[in-house]
Amino acid sequence: MNAATLRATSAPTAAAQRAPAPRAGGGRLELAGLERAFGAYRALDGLDLTVERGEFIALLGPSGCGKSTALNCIAGLLPLTGGAILLDGKPIHELAPEERGFGMVFQSYALFPHMTIRKNVGFGLAMQGVPKAEAEARIDAALDLVRLKSQGDKLPGQLSGGQQQRVAIARAIVIRPPLVLMDEPLSNLDAKLRLEMRAEIRAIHEAIGSTTIYVTHDQDEALSLADRIVVMANGVIRQVGTPEELYERPNHVDVADFMGFRTRILGRVTADGSMVELPGGRLALPAARGLRAGTPVTVSVRPEDFVASKGEARGGDGLTGTVRSIEYRGRAWFGSAALPDGTLVYFRADSTLPQGAPVILAPDPARTLIFEETGR
Amino acid sequence: MSDMVLQGAAQRPARPALKTRLAAKGFDGTTLLVLPGLIAVLALFIYPFLYGVVDSLTPQAGAWYENYRRFFSDPFLYNTISATLWLALPVTLLNLLLAVPIAFRVRLMRRQRLLTTLLVLPITLGTVLVAEGLLNFLGPQGWFNRTLILIGLLDTPLRLTNNYWGVFASLLITGFPFAFLLTLSYVTGIDPAIEQAAATLGASAWRRFTRIFLPLLVPGLSVTFCLAFVQAFAVFPSAVLLGAPAGATRVISIAAYSAAFEEYNHSLGSAIAIIMGAVQLLVVLAVLGLRGFFYRGSASGTKG
Amino acid sequence: MIRDRGLGSKLWRTAVWAVTLLFILNLLGVIATVVTNSLATRWLGTWLPVDFTTRWYFAAWREFQLTEVLLVTFQVVFLVTLLSGLIGITTAYALARRDFAGKRFVVLVFLLPLLVPPLTYGIPLATLLYQVGLGGSFWGVVIINLVPSIPFVVLVMIPFIEQIDPRVEAAARVFGAGTGSLFTRILLPLLLPGMLAALLLVLVRTIAMFELTFLVAGPTSQTLVVSLYYAVFASGVRASQSIDAMAVVYMVTTLFWLILALRFVNPTQIVARAKQSQPAH
C-alpha cells in the first residue's frame, strides 16, 4: 500500500470545498524534554519534538508506548514531571487545560450527554464568552463542515457512532484552536466507517489549517493522514519522518515491525563481511556492507518481499525452511515457514506449496533491512 | 411487510400449541421461577399492606374515617408529621450537601477502600448502637463537650442529648455514609473523559461542576435524596433513646408504635402507619417530579 | 482526572478533607466511648475512667442472658439469609432472563418494600402475625424479616445475573447439559461470588434490623439488637457499663460479618446495587 496514493484519494472532499471554513492558522508547538513518571514507571522519558504551523503529526506506537500520555500532557490533563511545552515560543505547560484553548477529540467522543448537538458544539464558545449571534454562526459553519447541520437539536445518544465522532470533531474545531489533539478518534468505529472518517478528518484539517496531533496505533491511519509520523516505544521517540521515509527506511527494529516488516531473523555478518549468516543459509545483502565481521544483526523483511519456491537453498541464494501454513489471498499465496532453528518467517509464493515441504526463501535484497543489534 | 402477511397466513391453519404461544410471550418454565418470590412478597407485603388499609378504615368505634379524623384533629398526633419532617428534611439535605463535595474529592483517590470501609461502619452498626454511643459521647461529660471546652469554644457543656440535636446527630451519623456511598457510585459512574473534554474547551473547575457534573448528577442525586429521606423519615429507636419522645422528637413512628402496641389500638396504629407512608410518598414524588425537568439518560458516556 | 492547582482550590480541598476528618473522628469517638465505658470501673466527669475491668462483660452475659439471645439471633439471621437467598435468587434469575408482560409491575412489587418505611407495613403485618398466633414467636421474627430481605436479594442479583452471557447457558445446553448439571456446573460457579455478596449483605442487614424485629419479638425470640434497645431504654435499671458491654458484644458480632462481607464486596455495594453492568449492544 502506498501512502502517496492513499493521500491523493482522501484529500479534497465536498465538505472541504463547501464550507468557507475559518482559517484558524495553527500554532507552532515545541516539546522539550517532556517527562511524565507514574511512581517509578516512566511513561514519557524525555520527549523532544517540534511541530510546525499547520502540520498534521501522527503519534504512532503500540498501547502503553506513551503516546496517549504525551497527548494528555500537551492538553494539560496530566501535569508534567519534567520538561517544557512551548506554543509559538511561549511556555504553556503550567497552564490548566481550560487556559490552553486547544481542541481535543476523545476516543470515547466524550460528548455531553445532557446537551443537544448544538449545545455540545457551542460549549467552548460559551466558555470563551463569544457573543450569541457569532456563536450561532460558527456552530452552523462547524456543523456544516462535518455535515450534521440537520441533527443540531438531537441529543448525542440519538446519533450513530460516526455521527457522534463528527460532533466531537466539530466541537473541538469550532473554538479555532491553535492546536487540535485527537486521541485514537476512530478506534470505536467499524472498518468501513473508519476509512470514510479518515478521509474526512484529513479534509477538515486542510480546510481549517490547524496544527494537529493525532494519536493512533494503526499504521495505515498514520501513513494516510499525517505529514509526519512520530513512532514511539517505551516512552521515547524511535523515529520521526514522513510516511514515505518511515515506510521505506525504518531505522529501528521496532519501527520496522510497525511498518509491516513481519519477519525478524537473528544472524551474524560473515567473516569476510560480504554476507549475513542466518539459520538455514546465508544471504548476500547490500545493506550488510560496512558492518564488522561477526556483528550480530537482525534482518527484517516484509512478507510480500520474501518469496518462497520449491527446493533447497544452495550457497547464498536464500534460506531453507519448512512450510508451516499457507493461504490464498487473491493474486498470490501467503504463508509461514520455519527455519531450522524454529524462527518463523512470513513469505509470499506464486503457487501453492504443500505443508511440510522444504522451500527456498529468497528476500528481495533491496527491500531487506539489517539492524545492528539483536533487537529483542 | 409482505413477509409478515405470509407468515400470518402460514400460521393460521395449524395454531401452535399453547406452550409455544406462551413461550413466545416470555412465559415458560423459567418465568415460573418468579412465583416463589412473588408469592412471598404478595403474602408478606402486599396483603398485610391492604389489610392495614382496611384495618385503618374499621376503627374500634365511630365512622369508617374515625381514625383519620382523630389523627388530624389531635395535635399530639398530627404534630408528629411536622416533627418528623423537621428532622428528616434538614438532615437529608445536609447529608447530601456534605456528600457531594466529599465524593468529588474521594473519586480522585486511588485507595478509597479504607475510607469507604470506615464510613460503612455506622450503617452496619445500626441506629440502636449509634444512639447508645451518642448518649455518652454527646452527654454533658462526654468527649464531644469536653473537647469543645478544652479548645475554648465553649464555657459550659451544650445539651445535646434527649432533645432534637441528639436525634439530628444520630441521623447524620447513620445517614451521611449512606448518602455518601450512593453519591460516590454515581459520581464515579461519569466518564472522566467528559470532564476532560469540558476542560479542554475552556471550562473552569466551577463551570465544569455547574454545567456538566450537576446536570448529569441530578437524576442520581434525586434518587439518593429519596432513599436517604426514606431512612431518615422512618427514624424510630434514636428518637426514643436520644431524643425527647414525648416532646420535640415525638416522630410519627413513635405515634404509630404506641397506638398499636401500647394502646393496643391496631386500627389506629395502621392508620398512622399508612399516613406515614403517604407523607413519605408525597415527598418522594415531589422530588422525582422536580427531577423530570433535567436530563435523564446515562451519564457514563455516549459510547455504544 | 483533572487536579486543579491554585489557592482557592487548595483551600476548598482542605475544607472538604477537614469536614471528612471531623466526621470520622466523631464516629470513632462514639465507638470508642462505648468500648471504654464497657471496660470502666467508674467513669464520671473525667476524660478517662478511674480504672479498667472486664467484669461488666460477665455481668452483662448473665443479666441479659446473652447465650440465649445470641443463639436466637444466629438462628433468625441464618434462617432469614437462607430463605431469602433461595427465594430471591430463583426470582432474580427469572426476572433477569425473561421478558414477559407485566415484568415492570413485578419489579415494582419487589422495589416497594425497600421504599416504604418499615413501620408502614410492619404494623399491619405484626397485627396479622399476632392474630394467627405467630406474634412473639421465633417464626414471626423470621417471617417479618423476610419482607425486606427477599426484595433486596432480588434487586442485588438481577444485574449480576444479567451480566452472565446467556450464550454460556446455551452453549452448555448444546453440549448436552441437562437442567440439573446446567445449574450445578455452570450457573452455580458463575453466580457464587454474587450470591455470596448478596447473602452476606442480607446477613449484616438482618443483624442490625431493629424496627421490624422489635414489633414481633417476644421474650424468647429477642435478637441482640432488640435486647440492646430494651437495655438502653430501661437504662436506669442496670449499670451503664453493663449495657455498653452488651453493645460491644453486638458490635463484635456485626463487625465480624461485616469484615467477612468486605472480603467479597465493595463497601459501596452495601448501600447501592452492584455496579450496573454495561448493557451489551
UniProtKB/TrEMBL annotation, chain C:
<dbReference type="InterPro" id="IPR000515">
    <property type="entry name" value="MetI-like"/>
</dbReference>
<dbReference type="GO" id="GO:0055085">
    <property type="term" value="P:transmembrane transport"/>
</dbReference>
<feature type="transmembrane region" description="Helical">
    <location>
        <begin position="69"/>
        <end position="93"/>
    </location>
</feature>
<keyword id="KW-0472">Membrane</keyword>
<feature type="transmembrane region" description="Helical">
    <location>
        <begin position="138"/>
        <end position="161"/>
    </location>
</feature>
<protein>
    <submittedName>
        <fullName>ABC transporter permease</fullName>
    </submittedName>
</protein>
<keyword id="KW-0813">Transport</keyword>
<dbReference type="Pfam" id="PF00528">
    <property type="entry name" value="BPD_transp_1"/>
</dbReference>
<comment type="similarity">
    <text>Belongs to the binding-protein-dependent transport system permease family.</text>
</comment>
<dbReference type="GO" id="GO:0005886">
    <property type="term" value="C:plasma membrane"/>
</dbReference>
<feature type="transmembrane region" description="Helical">
    <location>
        <begin position="105"/>
        <end position="132"/>
    </location>
</feature>
<keyword id="KW-0997">Cell inner membrane</keyword>
<keyword id="KW-0812">Transmembrane</keyword>
<feature type="transmembrane region" description="Helical">
    <location>
        <begin position="12"/>
        <end position="35"/>
    </location>
</feature>
<feature type="transmembrane region" description="Helical">
    <location>
        <begin position="182"/>
        <end position="208"/>
    </location>
</feature>
<feature type="transmembrane region" description="Helical">
    <location>
        <begin position="245"/>
        <end position="265"/>
    </location>
</feature>
<feature type="domain" description="ABC transmembrane type-1">
    <location>
        <begin position="70"/>
        <end position="261"/>
    </location>
</feature>
<keyword id="KW-1133">Transmembrane helix</keyword>
<keyword id="KW-1003">Cell membrane</keyword>
<dbReference type="InterPro" id="IPR035906">
    <property type="entry name" value="MetI-like_sf"/>
</dbReference>
